Amino acid sequence: MSAIPMDSREGVIWFDGQLVPWADAKIHVLTHGLHYASCVFEGERAYGGQIFKSKQHSERLKQSGELLDFTIPYAVDDICAAKKLVIEKNNLPDSYVRAFAWRGSEALGVSGLANKIHVAIAAWEWPSYFAPEERLKGIRITMADFHRPDPQTIPSRAKASGLYMICTISKHKAERAGYADALMLDWRGRVAECTGANIFFTKNGVLHTPLADAFLNGITRQTVIELAKRRGIEVQERIIMPDELGSFEECFITGTAAEVTPVAEIADWRFTPGAITRALMDDYTAEVQPKAAAA
């Protein structure tokens, strides 16, 4: 990722219906979304000038807002058109796209019913979430101290900024210890996800992944499950306990930023990136590339 600070880049950002210079896309420090995490977002990728599953991401952004008790004041098609405009105006056919919505600064307190809902969209170059050499051999993951909370305590189906607080803490601890990421369990002690990606395992030719009942059912996760089924690979979405990890052969994580990334190690458990992981990496690359998909 570029060393240029996020507030010092060139280009334009779509902000409440208008394109504004990057440096002018500002909010007040007493914004509700900053103090009370009333913010939702999407992470997307553009490949060859097309945003992969743009409509699904825009729909989820709207749904996330509803789960946080606010209505995003733009239709799904309008959000999709704005994202396309952003990558075109910034000349970023291959880029990461961030669309987000938040409560403004009209009032500051737990209640934000009177606050305006703002929407912004930015795009920038983000080649890979992990270093290329690390990604090819399989990343190293540790176990997180924090668990994903009970869905009765949080809106777990929303891609909301506040839900990532424990993810940031967990990723920082992992990176300081020399790992690329951390595996989080849920409040019941079951395998859940990594700090910003879903996780898959293989055993005897079968793909296993945790039930998405306490964490976000990622769009990339859904895509990979579909790709595996196209290949005739059996997919089991099920409860996975930590003591099962030693029985799996391959492991990989999925997400818009991570795409499909092999895992070589989770704490004391070891995995060897193999045929299923490589096949799904290739299939995903073909799926997201407009030219490859049309070939």
From TrEMBL:
Under PROSITE patterns, the record lists:
AA_TRANSFER_CLASS_4
Question: What pathway does the annotation place this protein in?
Answer: Amino-acid biosynthesis; L-isoleucine biosynthesis; L-isoleucine from 2-oxobutanoate: step 4/4; Amino-acid biosynthesis; L-leucine biosynthesis; L-leucine from 3-methyl-2-oxobutanoate: step 4/4; Amino-acid biosynthesis; L-valine biosynthesis; L-valine from pyruvate: step 4/4
Instruction: Name one matching Pfam family.
Output: Aminotran_4
Superkingdom, taxonomy of origin: Bacteria
Enzymatic reactions: L-leucine + 2-oxoglutarate = 4-methyl-2-oxopentanoate + L-glutamate; L-isoleucine + 2-oxoglutarate = (S)-3-methyl-2-oxopentanoate + L-glutamate; L-valine + 2-oxoglutarate = 3-methyl-2-oxobutanoate + L-glutamate
Question: Which GO MF terms does the UniProt record name?
Answer: branched-chain-amino-acid transaminase activity
Keyword match S-adenosyl-L-methionine: no
Q: Which Gene3D superfamilies match?
A: 3.30.470.10, D-amino Acid Aminotransferase, subunit A, domain 2 (3.20.10.10)
Keywords in alphabetical order, please. Amino-acid biosynthesis, Aminotransferase, Branched-chain amino acid biosynthesis, Pyridoxal phosphate, Transferase
- What EC class is this? transferase
What are the EC numbers?
Answer: 2.6.1.42
Q: Which cofactor does it need?
A: pyridoxal 5'-phosphate
Which family is annotated? Belongs to the class-IV pyridoxal-phosphate-dependent aminotransferase family.
For this protein, the record's PANTHER family field holds: AMINO-ACID AMINOTRANSFERASE, AMINODEOXYCHORISMATE LYASE
Q: Tell me the function of this protein.
A: Acts on leucine, isoleucine and valine.
Q: What is this protein called?
A: Branched-chain-amino-acid aminotransferase
Which species?
Answer: Camelimonas fluminis
**What lineage, starting at the top, does this entry show?**
Bacteria, Pseudomonadati, Pseudomonadota, Alphaproteobacteria, Hyphomicrobiales
Gene name tied to this protein? ilvE
